[in-house]
Amino acid sequence: MSELSTEQWTIIRDYLARRAGLYLDDSRMRQGRMFVQERYRQLQISPAAYTLRIQDPTNASEVQWLAERLANHETQFFRNPAHFRALREHIFPELQRVRSPLRPLRCWSAGCSTGEEPYSMAMVALQQWGNPPSRPISIWATDLSHVPLERAIAGEYRGRSLANVQSDYKQWFEQQPNGSLRVSEAVRSLVQFEQHNLLDALPHWAYQLDVVFCQNVTIYFQLETCRQLIERIYAAMAVGGYLLLGFSESLWGIFDRFETVEVAGAFIYRKGDGQPKPRPTVERPITKPLDKPVEPTPVRPRPSTRPSVSVDVPKVPDVASLLAEARTLRAQGQQRRGLSLLATIAPNQRQPAILALAAQLHADLGQNDQAAAEARRALELDVLQDAAYVVLGMIELNQGAWDKAINYLERASYLVPESPTIAFHLAESYRHQGRETAALRYYQHALRKLAQHSSSTVIDGIAVGWLRSACERWIGSLEASQGTF
């Protein structure tokens, strides 16, 4: 059976992005092609026939099959503790004050995976209003994939997914004979699960939403797909409702109609009343003299018709200082602290450089999917983010995709020609590809740049002493193989 061609793969990849929102960039191409190959061999059809099959609008189950195997379903209870603290300490109490006690609070976990997130929301609600809750609340949970939804409905968990469960929430689990913990009936009764593709029109119940969790979902979307989804969510939310996204899902440069507020140490989005905000006065030079001074017209303050909202005033951090501190933490091997520090930056200040640094930190921790998604998002916002190219290049290098690695690393080298680490990684890629002359040139370039650093220095997470030794070893080997003296 013939192999899947690059053209066929591109058609399948682009169709998957249009129908499921799951865009597989070069860093995930190998995985995607592997699953496609597995599928058409299982069906005993040719790659060309499978390419036609997946584009057949009457055969949506094929897109579903592939998307389920490529999506990352790993999650945890209370995955982002700051967000759930904000839900408990501010959002639910605020909604209790401003919403009619007879009106059900309407919550949605969009991209709920195996159910930990909506169940966490339900536990916070039960802690807030008792069991059964003293006020009506509805929590919907949706995901593209059927398999994780089946696990969510079963409600049984063990291991890593329970790592963030604090002692006061353990009452909502029941020990099972097989050693797992099952979410109690009181919690399960608050959550309704449903299969839903976020690229489709929103479900019939998605209106006047008060709380929407959509975390670590849109990082795999292209920018325009993300913008369209956020517009639909915004339209479906009630005024005063809250949207909670993952760290890398800042709306910076994508959508500006939400208000950004800081609550209980977390930055979240709030749907305001839509009233235009006053623009700052800009002084313009006078190009001709005025006949007489113009008296300013007094502006009477307009009474506010919007309910009082008790939110903390966002602090404006010095983003440059925080970036520098996070880079220092990375150099010290404290990647998790670096990520926590970046999370303190307000979403509307999370520039592409911040996403690129977050990608580096995740890559250092071996979290390649998250790293690649953040690097790609940084480049969608700014094509000059050299660190993002390095992350994607290193992922490809580690997967043995030398051509792809060289493509990314050459772009990074063009932007930062003085970097010894980029030169070293390029040399490694060229050597594995069999291009010895190019590899030798870049090893020599890296060694020259390393001369200005002491051996104990760490650059981009790599000790200079080790880098220098590796360059010298490969230079000697390549010169000997080429007969260079």
Automatic annotation (TrEMBL):
Domain CheR-type methyltransferase, first and last residues per copy: 1-274
Mark out the compositionally biased spans (Basic and acidic residues). 274-294
What are the BP-aspect GO terms?
methylation
Report residue spans for region: Disordered. 274-311
Please provide the record's keywords in A-Z order: Methyltransferase, S-adenosyl-L-methionine, TPR repeat, Transferase
**UniProt xrefs under Pfam families:** CheR, TPR_16, TPR_8
* Keyword set includes Transferase: yes
* Superkingdom, taxonomy of origin: Bacteria
| Annotated protein name in UniProt | CheR-type methyltransferase domain-containing protein
The organism encoding this protein is Herpetosiphon geysericola
